[in-house]
Hints:
The complex is a heterodimer. Chain A has 15 helices and 10 strands. By secondary structure, chain A is an alpha+beta fold. Chain A folds into 2 domains: 2-51 and 283-414, no CATH class; 59-276, no CATH class. In chain A, the strands form 2 sheets. A 6-stranded mixed beta sheet of chain A has the order 8-3-2-9-1-10. In chain A, strands 4, 5, 6 and 7 form a 4-stranded mixed beta sheet that branches. In chain A, strand 6 and strand 7 (189-199) form a beta hairpin. The longest helix of chain A is centred in the last third of the chain and has 44 residues, at 276-319. Chain A is elongated and about 105 Å long. Chain A starts with a helix and ends with a helix. The longest helix of chain B is centred in the C-terminal third of the chain and has 18 residues, at 180-197. The model of chain B has no long low-confidence stretch (mean pLDDT 92). Chain B has one domain (36-62, 83-230): P-loop containing nucleotide triphosphate hydrolases (Rossmann fold). Chain B is an alpha/beta fold. The chains are: A alpha+beta, B alpha/beta. The A-B interface holds A 4, 8, 11-12, 14-15, 322-323, 325-334, 336, 408-410, 413 and B 55, 58, 60-61, 81, 84-85, 87-89, 93, 95, 99-104, 112-113, 115-117, 160, 164. Magnesium ion is lined by residues 50-51, 172 of chain B.
Amino acid sequence: MIKENCKLAIISIKANKMRAFLTMLGIIIGVCAVIAIMTVGNSMTADVKKQLEGYGVQNITLYVSQIDWNEEISEADMENMLFKPDVLHKLSEKFGKRIAGISVEASVDGGKVIRDGKTANVNILGTSAGYYKANKVKLINGNSFNQYDYEQGNNVAIVSDKFIEQLYGSEYKPENLLGKEIEINSMEEYINVTVVGIYHYEAAGQRGGSKNITTNVYIPLKAAWNITHNKDIMECVVVAAEGENATVLSEDIKLYLTDAMATQLGDKFMIDAYSNQSMIEENTKTMNQMTMAISMIAAIALIVGGIGVMNIMTVSITERTREIGTRKALGAPDSMIMLQFISEAIIICLIGGVIGIVLGLVLGNVAVHFMGYTPHISFASIYMSVGFSMAIGVFFGYSPAKHAAKMNPIDALRYE
Amino acid sequence: MSSDILLQARGIRKSYYVGTPNELEILHGIDLDIKRGEFVSIVGQSGSGKSTLMNILGILDRQTAGEYILDGVDISKAPNKSLSYLRNKHIGFVFQTYNLIARTDAVSNVEMPMLYAGIPEKKRRQRAEELLEMVGMAERMHHTPDELSGGQKQRVAIARAMANNPDIILADEPTGALDSKTGRLVMDIFHELHEKQGKTIVLITHSNELAAETPRIITISDGNIISEKTNGGKGVA
Ligand SMILES: Nc1ncnc2c1ncn2[C@@H]1O[C@H](COP(=O)(O)OP(=O)(O)OP(=O)(O)O)[C@@H](O)[C@H]1O
Ligand SMILES: [Mg+2]
């Protein structure tokens, strides 16, 4: 039955190709708009999400901020904006397994290492044990610092493979540098550190001249403090454990720290936290709102298209009154006549929908391409469009089809 | 004996309301019995109500008053919903203007009543091909109506009327739009259906010659049956 009705519908559409196409236009435009917008929206969301995920979704950055930004802060106040090591220690104990690590870093300064006339620019960074997880540093040779290194502030270092390549050339086996001492020239001072580990340098973002890349040299946090004589912790990053919702955890930590640091914060400061997770959520939310708003406009186009379908079905049925009469004379039940014309309406809408989807995908991908995102097709929107165009066919085809089904056979046969 | 009566009409009246209160009665109480296997022709002047009667017999229209029993079923009491089923099973129509479905080939046209009867595709196709062969249209099976002559169209229409092997074939001036030679061809098919397959046929015609070929002739004038004639033999021109 369905096959027969589809055949009939296609015959009828073929007989009036131009008319059918014009009728489909509304549907085509509506669906095309939805698909194009969804493709652009999805690609943007996916790209932003990927970018933020690169920085670690599980990272929660904590810092102390002023409640009233207009208020002057004194030298003593500045002191109150810092995290104390023991507070962070207690934090890590309190939250236990919910956090994978706490990352604190202390920037020493930039510097360079010179060997055989070759120079490698570096950035010396004091790190806590949690740093590597928070920043997705991948160790490829040697070890990370041990507890002893952290406690004593030993002059040990983890350098990048890029750094070694810059100094020793690409032939040199990186592991040969393990246990060797390097001399970093920083702030007109020489810092000697022993290489204990090598990590893989990952180019961040833009590809520039690969010659002058500055890579990080990591040393234990305490070692950095020893060099700079400054133990200020202005910011720390908590890495949420696997499976832990960073947004929820960040709220919990905020509450805990607000309490634990109450005397220090006073009524001037508060704990602030942000996580990439919450940024992703925020971003997805605005994106979805935008998509919804534009989809509403597309929905209006679809409804207008649907009315066009209804109009053309009414015309088509009037034209074929005698055919309907004949079919009834041959014994077609009302339900079959109804099915025939609803099928026709559905197929018109479906063809329009498919054309719209194809055009929308092309348009969306071209737009995404020019906006510089990676194309990301929204399959949900394709299924939705197919379903929606069929629904329009049923909805707007129903009334004309009902009219056809209810025709009196003899009147239909005599119609001129 | 009564089971032999296929069609029984009693006091059939039909009125049209051309704007109240101007009631216009077209049929003034028709009584008619047709037995199984009869070949009846109905003649009468234009506007006498032949088609009106035929449409009532074919359940395309409902009488204003009177009783109509087809194959034991009281049509006047049958619910509207069952009428399409009754038409599909019991009646085969042949129209003056053929009324083939446009853009649909001959085979598919013949299949149509079987499609509505829910007969599976293969069986439908096979029977449609047989029927088209019977009316001599085997070579034109896949031609659409606009590729067929009037006589060819009418032969397809007869094949279509036969599709569900109906109890009765109702033909309203089937040769009215054809030249006499083609009309002859169509008429021969009716004779064949009547003689070889024992089909009950009711034929409306303006041609006295064609009417004279049928065993029974009913004359209608102004909505009344005014005479009935029975031919002993079948006159063949
Ligand atoms: N829907 C209608 N409304 C009003 N009058 C009608 C209607 N249908 C038919 N009539 C009238 O009924 C009368 C009988 O019409 P009918 O078609 O039965 O005649 P007929 O005997 O078949 O004539 P012909 O030989 O020309 O086909 C005509 O006078 C016609 O005007
Ligand atoms: Mg007539």
